[in-house]
Amino acid sequence: VQLVESRGGLVQAGGSLRLSCVASELYLEDCSVAWFRQAPGAEREIVACINSNDGSRYYSDSAKGRFTISSDNDKNTMFLQMNNLKPEDTAVYYCAAEEDYGKPGDFLRNPWDYQYWGQGAQVTVSS
């Protein structure tokens, strides 16, 4: 099983960036999927996730209204669209997947809930 992320990048504050994550030997439609991020010296934190049972989405307070998580089952790819980026969004971003539908309305929000991880993509937002 592999999750391969697109490269991150350097963007100015207020700019946008879209991350992608392609899965191999794993069907994302059968998984709960998520994006996490980790800033230097900080713990890995949830950004957004999808409950594959009912398609509901969870966003952290910092991501709400600016980021969008999505999944294209035909391409077996998940995305994180990030708009209005801020310097505090600077971090390494990781996609994650777990072969667990989850209960309706329930979200897997902790790193230890996920078995499969992407390699990480550095996102740097300049002020």
What does this structure look like?
With 127 residues, the chain is mostly beta strands. 0% of the residues lie in helices and 47% in strands. It is built from no helices and eleven strands. The chain has strands at residues 2-5, 9-12, 17-24, 32-38, 45-50, 57-59, 67-72, 77-82, 91-98, 116-117, 121-126. The strands form two sheets. Strands 2, 4, 5, 6, 9, 10 and 11 form a seven-stranded mixed β-sheet that branches. Strands 1-3-8-7 form a four-stranded antiparallel β-sheet, with no helix packed on it. The protein is globular. The relative contact order is 0.32. The model has no long low-confidence stretch (mean pLDDT 95).
Encode the helix/strand succession as letters.
EEEEEEEEEEE
Count of DSSP H/I helices:
0
Overall spatial form: globular
Approximately how much beta-strand content do the residues carry? over 45%
Radius of gyration: 14 Å
Q: Overall pLDDT, averaged?
A: 95
Structural class: mainly beta
> In this structure, how is the largest beta sheet organized?
7 strands, mixed
Query: How far is the first residue's CA from the last residue's CA?
Result: 37 Å
The overall strand count is 11
Low-confidence stretches: none
Into which percent range does the helicity of residues fall?
A: under 10%
